[in-house]
Amino acid sequence: MLNLLRRFKQIPTASATTAYLRSSSSIASVAPRLFSTTGFTTVPDSTKLEEENWTRYTPPSFYPVSIGDVLHSKYQVLYKAGYGTTATIWICRDLQRNECVCMKSMVSNYPSVEHEIKVYDVLSTASKTSRSPGKRFVRHALDHFELRHGECDYHFLIHEPLGASLQFFLDEIKVGLPIEYVKDLASQMLHALAYIHSAGVIHTDLQANSILLHVQDEIVLKDAEEAEIEHPSARKSIGQKRDHGQGQSQPQPQSVVFQTTEHPSPLGRWIGGKSGPVLCDFGEARIGKQSYTELIQPAADRAPEVFLHIPWGSAVDIWSFGCTIWNLLLGENLFPRTWAYTADKDQLARMVALLGPPPSSFLDVGPRALEFFNQDGSPKGEVPSETLESLLASSLERTKKTMTAEESAAFLAFLRRALTWTPEGRVSAEELLWDPWIASRAERW
């Protein structure tokens, strides 16, 4: 673990970012590789595999991507890199350029898919004219295409392949990341937010899971490809019964669910001086500068106005940013959740303890205010006795991190500028970049 921390200390910049606009030069077409159709582990029908576990899963909702396939006449599928509720993730080879890319195969007929496509279109347009340093810290789409299968249409996005999320390292280390590294991350993510907000995009889902790191050495992608050739991924066929007219039914393969590939390369090939952060996951993003009222954000990082059903805008990202920085530094949520039915009430009561009471004018315009607060403005949930100062002191002791009294005060002042009850009280990403706690980093990028 000490070696892991040393590696983090060696990640000062994101200078080796891959460009989001492809050059027409250096084209080196290659032939597709042959992948084995035998020698893999067959997962039994009784076992649900990966995306099958989602409650909304049906075989037709996911395009039947198979390892070895060439899609859109240029992207050969090499192995599966992940999955989610609305997509499967694959590492492919762009045969026209002989380079690895990441392909997101998106489910059919789901509202967020078309929405995400539009967000990437907006970011693509913005990147052509913007001079913002935040561009390098935001994931852009390299390509987008659509395929039809059966009665459904499916969208695909092509991205630069990235490595692990910051949440992966938080889970490994348990005590948060080094302070100086978190300062760099804070500056880089504020640049990213300033860029997307200027383009009219609200992320709504900023958290450690949505910040991925660049790959230090792309040999790791080749290693996984060779591992797939030598040891084909486990998989299962999803069939449907068909009656052949004699009272007998025979399962006919409809699609194949593959198991995600475990990367064989050592961590040192993933993390290093080139491993700058990238803000990803725009599936829940909103476009435009108007306000919204939908429920957004992971519950632990949810802004007060969202709880109270007060119209919200880009300031929700600043609140999430503040929660994320605490998590990155100290390895724990500032507003941890329980499964109790009073979780929302208790979370707002904890906000009162840590941040002070909300303005009465703020509660007056909140349609749900009386669910969480009494008529006199006191919270209905259980208010803890700790303060933000006492919580920081105990968290630093737990994680064995050291801050002087002046450094602690500067950090909490920085945090309080992001975590205000009212969205209009939160400073913008551009303003927060010049806060004394990280101002020395603002021009580095």
From TrEMBL:
Residues 75-438 form the Protein kinase domain. It catalyses: L-seryl-[protein] + ATP = O-phospho-L-seryl-[protein] + ADP + H(+); L-threonyl-[protein] + ATP = O-phospho-L-threonyl-[protein] + ADP + H(+). Residues 246-257 have a biased composition (Low complexity). The keyword NAD does not apply. Its EC number is 2.7.11.1. Keywords: ATP-binding, Kinase, Nucleotide-binding, Serine/threonine-protein kinase, Transferase. One of its GO terms (biological process) is spliceosomal complex assembly. It comes from the Eukaryota. GO terms for cellular component: cytoplasm; nucleus. GO terms for molecular function: ATP binding; protein serine/threonine kinase activity. Signal peptide: none annotated. The keyword Cell membrane does not apply. Residues 231-259 are annotated as: Disordered. PANTHER family: PROTEIN KINASE DOMAIN-CONTAINING PROTEIN-RELATED. This is non-specific serine/threonine protein kinase.
